[in-house]
Amino acid sequence: MKNMKKEIEKLKKRLNEISxxxxxxxxxxxxxxxxxPAKGTDARATAISYLSATIHNKFISINRDGLLTKLVKAVNxxxxxxxxxVIVSExxxxxxxxxxxxxxxxxxxxxxxxxxxxxxxxxxxDDDFGLFLPWLKKIVELKREEAKYVGYTExxxxxxxxxxxxxxxxxxVSEIFEGFKVFLIPFLKKIRESKVKINAKKAKGCFPxxxxxxxNEYIAKSxxxxxxxxxxxxxxxxxxxxxxxxxxRLTTRYKEEDMLYALGSTxxxxxxxxxEQGLPAEHFGTPLGESVSLGIHESQSRxxxxxxxxxxPFWTYFYPKLQREFSVPFKKLAFGEFYRIINRVRPTLIxxxxxxxxxxxxxxLRFEIEKAMIEGKIKLENLPKIWNAKMKxxxxxxxxxxxxxxxxxxxWSTGGIGYFPTYSLxxxxxxxxxxxxxxxxxNIDQKISKGKFKEILLWLRKxxxxxxxxxxxxxxVRKVTGENLNCKYWNDYMEKxxxxxxxxx
Length: 505
Prior knowledge:
Elements: H1 2-34, H2 41-60, H3 67-76, H4 82-98, H5 103-126, H6 129-150, H7 156-161, H8 170-193, H9 209-222, E1 230-234, E2 240-244, E3 247-252, H10 260-278, H11 294-308, H12 312-325, H13 327-330, H14 335-342, H15 356-374, H16 383-395, H17 421-440, H18 444-449, H19 454-463, H20 473-481, H21 488-501
Parallel strand pairs: 1-3
Antiparallel strand pairs: 2-3
Helix pairs in contact: 1-2, 1-3, 2-5, 3-4, 5-6, 8-15, 9-10, 10-11, 11-17, 15-16, 15-17, 17-21
């Protein structure tokens, strides 16, 4: 066992070295979205490509002397248990995947995606899908290659999805999403037929960006984000990056005429940031210092953004502050009306601006399209038509241009094919986790209404954040809630909340 401890420490050292480079790579990617000048695109793409290839090579060489193989055998023989067994097993899982990818491929994919991001941003700005199309074709081609290298049983999409939600398959996602559609489409129809009409224009005005920034940071800090271990900036597409639990970067975006535009994104990304800050710093670089999956990550952002951040208790505490900071129009806007406005259900073009009810339909649309892309069932030239048709079918919305349609998300330009399903899985996880939290924390609504978020954050730290990758997603759900992942809690939450808002639909 003594020798095994030495070998484990050797593995941890190698993993840490890789993570240091990974942090710098993440920082370069964050800067690319936040501060980098336009002329820096090619140089940054080359640098990012080099760092990606370096990380890949160093990770593959982690088993250069048979270290990882020896440790896996020891785990299988029961000689290594507990946390160390998790470190070895999860490292082996990732290593087994990465070793299948040639260095040349990793470098090409990284460089292509880095350049494609800038092209996508311009294409989106200019409403020019044709500009982005050649890059999308190249990315899809490369992701198909990746699926072949990694291997799959049923669909090449499985190989890509596994990188974001380990163990989940396209078939399982499809079954969950079909269940979503069965519930959502008629539920949305009932809401749209309701006699309750909500006038969101009453919340519009002129809101100085600097004042918005201060208020958004105030909310993030109030719910637990540590600004001594983090930062919040502005980007075209809000995101969160965790370089280390003591260095977590958030971004949001503002509209001068719409105060609420930034709030949802800020609280959402803060949820991600709280998870990153809650990962055990002592395990940085190892699987015990990493998040379980993107679905679990999204459960944290969606819980804070919607279940908590759009709830009555939350705004019972924050609304008076909002009214003081932005007296026009909120001083004369009654609390009940404000609550209905922030929870208004209205099919819209943009996923990140979608309400809770319609959001999953946006995700389903993207999942179905990108799965078909990878399986070669659609021509990429037809993407705008396919996108627009699904928007009409699922949401009843006409798409006026590609900027507001197929070009709105950054994910495909970054190579993040397989990412989208995690958003809806996150919704399911969030409702189930929150139900367990309410069971464990007495009078949770009263505590939120008084601005007491510490107990909530401590519960999340204890039950989710602190475990790192000790458990797979569904194992974690069972441990925390006592049940497998299911739609019941999310559906019940939807019906209770929106049934009340829209007069018991």
